[in-house]
Amino acid sequence: MGTAERKGREKEQRRRAILKAARKIFFEKGLPAAAMDEIAEAAELSKGTLYLYFKSKEDLYVSLLEEGLAILRRMFEEVEARSLPADETLRQIGFTYYEFFKQYPDYFKILMFADARELHSQVSEEVLQGSEQRSLACLEVVARVFARGVAEGVFRKDLLPIEVAIMLWGISNGMIGLIANKAEHFMHDHQINLEALMAKSWELTMNSLRTAQKKK
Amino acid sequence: MGTAERKGREKEQRRRAILKAARKIFFEKGLPAAAMDEIAEAAELSKGTLYLYFKSKEDLYVSLLEEGLAILRRMFEEVEARSLPADETLRQIGFTYYEFFKQYPDYFKILMFADARELHSQVSEEVLQGSEQRSLACLEVVARVFARGVAEGVFRKDLLPIEVAIMLWGISNGMIGLIANKAEHFMHDHQINLEALMAKSWELTMNSLRTAQKKK
Amino acid sequence: MGTAERKGREKEQRRRAILKAARKIFFEKGLPAAAMDEIAEAAELSKGTLYLYFKSKEDLYVSLLEEGLAILRRMFEEVEARSLPADETLRQIGFTYYEFFKQYPDYFKILMFADARELHSQVSEEVLQGSEQRSLACLEVVARVFARGVAEGVFRKDLLPIEVAIMLWGISNGMIGLIANKAEHFMHDHQINLEALMAKSWELTMNSLRTAQKKK
Amino acid sequence: MGTAERKGREKEQRRRAILKAARKIFFEKGLPAAAMDEIAEAAELSKGTLYLYFKSKEDLYVSLLEEGLAILRRMFEEVEARSLPADETLRQIGFTYYEFFKQYPDYFKILMFADARELHSQVSEEVLQGSEQRSLACLEVVARVFARGVAEGVFRKDLLPIEVAIMLWGISNGMIGLIANKAEHFMHDHQINLEALMAKSWELTMNSLRTAQKKK
DNA sequence: CATGAATGAGCTTTCATTCAT
DNA sequence: CATGAATGAAAGCTCATTCAT
């Protein structure tokens, strides 16, 4: 044993080193401006080695998604584990998503843009599927919470949990996207706090999911 | 007069020619892949001339926003002019936004991406402000409709019209972004129709804006 | 004994495996486009192992010559074994060379290009000498046939057999080179069949080697 | 006028500067080893400029053919202009071809290799046709001389001049190819002078073209 | 002896931008 | 004001070869 095992570990370590370096560079400069040379240097590896582990620059970029989605899922599951009423859990998941955006704005950005059609062609099928799976895992947490809420009688019965999850995801993305790009502008020119607005929007949406008697 | 006037007209014409060519090329290839050479050729002007009218490639790209936003505004105002009840108007405006995305996916894309931080540095202040103004004009249509709804008693009084407009904008962007990137995937792998889901989401949101007695 | 012997056999087998794989890849893609990775994979050996058996990519390439020349020699000797009159044998050897080109165009190509100065520096002395020896062996068949023809009185006495062999080789290479590159062009643009022309040229040359009274 | 004219001249000059630099580098290193960087530097121009004038590295390489063929044609026509008997003219043209090889070995090499299938795809149609035309022009000189010989009664009537020209071309290429690659080897190992052999071969071939009564 | 991960120089080509005319 | 030739940095990717295990 021993040898093969260690080799496997080393390979995994190297992969991590590359991802770490890639994160740094991509997050600093964005996909187009980041150069493989820089990433190689940051990883203290040769450029060629990068291509041993990742098919292309884009492949490496999208591979970061896995990391981001793993974090997000963990954050969601942590909220779920608090064993609060379903509606409160869902509310907190919403804030957690925003929290994720604040803590890891760059992962969030990849999450939003990684699907852009243009990238797909340069990314290995494997990486693509991996990210889709993990993305689904996050959605499933949300769906699960909603389903629990339905069972508990706080959420409407007439909506499919997975559909609600997708809907909430879309809505949140939109609002956060606005915050990412426009927060300062709206605050400065119109004295509108997009962060507060997002909270309000989330409450409204949550409310529309509740059963009639439970509306707050 | 005469001469100066004609010169002004010619200048404006040339500007339009460039924008027209840019639209064609950018929409065909996307910002990174589009080349100034191609745009110059399509505009039947020299490459140098492009830089007489636009500060940079990105500047030209973002300048297209004005066109897009003008179209969108016209579409919104058309709906407004139908003189329907405020809630119906707002509902139709929502669908119109989606319609805009379907008809002009490329303008929509610029709308979504043009704010990305990375571009800003390369874009002239002037262009940036122009687009912000026109963007606001669109929001104002929505805000106006909502305000009318409040006056008519169909919409809640406790929400600021402009904030509602922003909120609806964010939500719509998020859902449409999902459709743009994930529609096929969700339909294929999960038999979920994102388009229908978007409609449902819009209805839910609309509902949460209504006064209690008017809920449908 | 046993072990050492088996090792020797294994080594030879591996060498053959590499040559076989190299043939496939080089013939498919040509020297510049062929990659050592591919050859290694085709040989089901590691890339490093290739360098245990061959000094360089070029060395491996030129090593294929041996195979080609072995085939050519066999083809020549087969003609020789038919025990025809010397002039008929020579004539058939000429056509056989062309046949070799048609059947093994890739070996022929190596034959023609392997001597290019540029390769020499990267090829081991050993391989180089091996190919020269085998090349000479082919020439010797031709020389032998010509010598027999002199003895039989059909060929001129005033020419050195080995020189004639070289001459015929050069002439054939030239004509075949033309066919390889230009056949289609001449056929298409000028209705000239280079293949037929080559046959005619060969007859003319043969004729000029005959004794006066034997001219056809 | 003036300006446009001068620009045209400058452009032509620049083209020549590139070709001159390319000749130097390609001839020193061969097509694969030559780098566009080097050529640009030698031409005292930027790399980008090279691509303004030539589509690709290969295009530039093949463009040198025109120069080579122009020289060759001039050399042939000079011989023709000496107004010697047709057979003597043809004999001298043969030696002139060899002379061309000795004086411009690198042009000769391009002549031999430029048709290789592999290049074609990267070379502009224009350049390709240009070289074919000039190549034909050289052949036509030879054909013309042969035709004159037929008229003068020194050459056989039963051969088509253009076919003879092609044949002689092929034969010469083959012999010269041998000289280029093997001269030293044959001289050193077998005391055979390929140059002398080529001359002998040419005489033999010439002889076989003569009418019976004129054989020497 | 065999491996195969790592190397890193090296390559062609592209393109936004400038500036002399 | 318009031109378009020239620039030259930049960049992704390949691949022959090496060498520690």
Oligomer: homotetramer
Run of helices and strands of chain A: HHHHHHHHHH
Strand fraction of chain A equals: under 5%
Summing up helix and strand content along with how strands pair, one would put the structural category of chain A as mainly alpha
Distance between the termini of chain A: 62 Å
Radius of gyration of chain A: 20 Å
Principal-axes geometry of chain A comes out as: globular
- Count, helices of chain A: 10
How many separate domains make up the residues of chain A? 2
- Which CATH architecture of the largest domain in chain A is right? Orthogonal Bundle
The CATH class name of the largest domain in chain A reads Mainly Alpha
Most extensive interface between two protein chains, with residue counts: C-D, 38 and 39 residues
Strand runs of chain A, count: 0
CATH fold annotation of the largest domain in chain A:
Tetracycline Repressor, domain 2
Which residues of chain A sit in consecutive blocks of at least 5 with pLDDT less than 50?
A: none
CATH superfamily of the largest domain in chain A, called what?
Answer: Tetracycline Repressor, domain 2
Average pLDDT over all residues of chain A:
90
